[in-house]
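User: Small ask, check this?
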Amino acid sequence: MYGYVRPDKGELKVSEYERFRGIYCALCHTLRERYGPACRFLVNYDFAFLAMLLSADESIPEKSRRCPYHPLRKTRCPAGGDNLSNAADCTVILAWWKMKDGIADNGFLKSLGCRLACLILHRSYRRAAERMPAFAECVSENLQKLDVLETERCESLDAAADKFAQILRSAAESISDETRKRIASQILYHLGRIVYILDAVDDLPEDIQTGGYNPLKYRYVLQDGVINPEDEAFLRESLQMSHNCLSSAFALMNQTPYTGILENTIYFGLPKVTQAVFDGSWRPSRNKKQERSPL
C-alpha cells in the first residue's frame, strides 16, 4: 500500500494520538519479531489502519516498549494479538509483490533496489504465505489479472481498481466472527478501490512521461497531461461513491478502542489526502514524510 490511509492529526484527541502511536509501534515490533529487523522498514500508516480494523472490541493489554529509532522514548503498545500478527503477515506479502512489480516495470539498472529487496524479503514472504495462504493466493491471482489488463492497455478504471480492491478485501478473511468479517470486507474493498484510484491520479504525470500503464491515460481525454475538469468531477464522484459505501459499512461496526482513530481516518484523513492528491500537493509532502515517526 502507499501511505494514503492516515488520520488527520489536527482532528485527533490526545488520547487517540497516543493510541495510534502505540498501534503503529506495536506493528513495527511485530514485524521484527515475526520476520526480522529488516522488515521493520515495511511498516506504514496503511497497515496500521489494517491492524486497527482487524482488532476485536475487547480491551487490549498494553506494555511500554522502546523504539530503536527513538531510544530515549518509550511508547505504550498493545501486547500482541491476532490483529497485529495478521497485519504483519499482509504487510510482508504485499511488500514482496510490490518489489516484484517494480522489477517488472523497470529496466535492470532501475530495478536493482527492488531486486535486492526481493532477495532480502524472500524467506519472510514464504513464511508469511504459509501463515496466510488464502491471502497470498488472492494477491498472486489478482495481480496476474492486473498484469493482463496492463498488457491490454485496458481503459476501464473500474476493472483495474477492482483487482486491488479484491486483494484488500481478502485481508478480512482472518476475522473469525462472520458479521465482523462481512463488514470489514466491505470497508477494505472500497478502501482498496480508493487507494488504487488515488495512486493512479498521483502517478499520472510520471506514467505519461515514462509510458507506464495507467488506466486514466486511456479512460479520459487529457489536456497537457492533466485530466480535464469535467472528467475530474466524474472521477471525484466515483471516489465519493466508494467513500460513502465504506462509511456505511463502518457505521455497522461495534465500538473498539480504535473506533475514534478509524473514524478520523475515514471522515477526515481520506478526504484530506484525496484533495491533496488532486491538487498536486500530495507528492512533495509524501516524499518528505518520515514514516518512522507516525504523524
Summary: The longest helix spans residues 178-210. The chain has one domain: 9-288. The domain at 9-288 is CATH 1.10.600.10 (Farnesyl Diphosphate Synthase). The two ends are 17 Å apart (CA to CA).
